[in-house]
Amino acid sequence: GAGVSQSPSNKVTEKGKDVELRCDPISGHTALYWYRQSLGQGLEFLIYFQGNSAPDKSGLPSDRFSAERTGGSVSTLTIQRTQQEDSAVYLCASSLVGQGGNTIYFGEGSWLTVV
Amino acid sequence: QKEVEQDPGPLSVPEGAIVSLNCTYSNSAFQYFMWYRQYSRKGPELLMYTYSSGNKEDGRFTAQVDKSSKYISLFIRDSQPSDSATYLCAMGGSQGNLIFGKGTKLSVKP
């Protein structure tokens, strides 16, 4: 696609429920990233994919968080048993190749509210 | 010491002013320096990209990198209300992921 596409754009869920956030990167981009941005906070790195593998998942905050990428394209970030502190904007980004000085392009984010 | 430090502001200036946004960093391995602009409830968009030290100009925007001082700047000339946004610096080396600053919130008053 023309840009990084994320869905849903907004999600309100009850505490304890599972949520899935989807990211469709720019066509041809091999690298995909998930970040989290809380109100007034900077970008918190969660996980990086190169192709379908995740060489760096060091930023996932707990084992309630997982992500996968299939076909070298679409990625899903899953949060199990959501907690109120999970409320944030989840941003997906992609780049032509991974890491180094490659420019990353962001989607508009999925705004998650846990009530 | 954090890897990247950025004053969160907020910074409020009158229309037409010159704006200076800055970041400092501690990792001498950083070679790539970027500025992203983020409007409210939008994703960050790349504004400027520089490699190593020096200046880069694009219209009203100038990015400056001083590797000896580990200091980068973004200057906005003739600032407009449409420049009101949060500006994030980002940097990285040949390995590893980009490291982002926390962002500076800028408001340009008409």
**Using DSSP, what is the number of strands of chain B?**
11
Number of helical stretches of at least 4 residues of chain A: 0
Radius of gyration of chain A: 13 Å
Mean of the pLDDT scores of chain A? Answer: 92
Shape of chain B: globular
Distance between the termini of chain B: 37 Å
Shape of chain A: globular
User: Poorly predicted ranges of chain B (pLDDT <50, ≥5 residues)?
Assistant: none
Please identify the structural class of chain B as seen in this structure: mainly beta
On the 0 to 100 scale, the average pLDDT of chain B is: 92
How far apart the termini of chain A lie comes to: 33 Å
Give me the oligomer status. heterodimer
* Helical proportion of chain A, percent range: under 10%
| Category by helix and strand content of chain A | mainly beta
Helix content of chain B: under 10%
What's the β-strand tally of chain A? 11
Number of helical runs of chain B? 0
Uncertain runs of chain A are none
